[in-house]
Write a structure and sequence with these properties.
Layout: H1 11-33, H2 37-46, E1 52-58, E2 64-70, H3 76-88, H4 90-100, H5 112-127, H6 133-147, H7 152-167, H8 169-172
Antiparallel strand pairs: 1-2
Helix pairs in contact: 1-2, 1-3, 1-5, 3-5, 4-5, 4-7, 5-6, 5-7, 6-7
């Protein structure tokens, strides 16, 4: 696997990407099913829940079938950190997101997966100063692309960029896009 630049993506980077995707799925499950973080993290880390992805493939007869593809094992520390941290700081994270949404949108109006993506991304931006803001934003835009084919990834990009300009302004100074 290679980056857009053509350089190979390290195994550690793939595990971190997998952790972000799993964190969004875990936050979604906790939000909708009312499961506890311990239950969900145990399912993901010990039992490999969400360890496979489904993708569609069309054969030469235009017949579509779903193929299960194994995912990279997530970085357990990053996964647990995002899930537990997002939940612990949920009010502050939601306030950041609400402040970055356009006037036409509210947290309640966001679809549950989109809300989970934004929460995880906002949490990482506000707490993980060891990760460049552009990396965090790009990773969560990629997560949005895993779930959506419409304008949602652009919304994720815009909201997380607005949040980064507030919580990571120093890191972005001199890098106006």
């Amino acid at each position: 696997m290679t980056q857009k630049s053509g350089r190979p993506i390290s195994a550690a980077a793939r595990r971190k990407s997998s952790a972000r995707l799993a964190a969004v799925q875990a936050l979604y499950q906790i939000d909708l099913a009312g499961a506890t973080p311990d239950q969900v993290l145990n399912d993901f880390l010990q039992h490999g829940i969400a360890a496979n992805a489904l993708r569609s493939e069309t054969n030469e007869y235009d017949q579509e079938r779903e193929i299960e593809t194994p995912l990279v094992t997530p970085d357990g520390e990053l996964l647990a950190g995002i899930v537990r941290g997002t939940l612990a700081r949920r009010d502050a994270v939601d306030e950041m997101i609400a402040g970055a949404l356009s006037k036409d949108w509210s947290m309640e109006r966001l679809e549950a997966v989109l809300r989970a993506i934004l929460r995880a991304g906002a949490f990482e931006l506000s707490t993980r100063t060891d990760i460049p803001p552009k990396v965090t934003i790009s990773e969560f835009v990629d997560v949005a692309h895993a779930f959506y084919t419409g304008t949602e990834p652009k919304l994720v990009n815009a909201v997380l960029d607005r949040i980064a300009r507030v919580v990571r302004a120093e890191d972005l100074k001199g890098r106006e896009e």
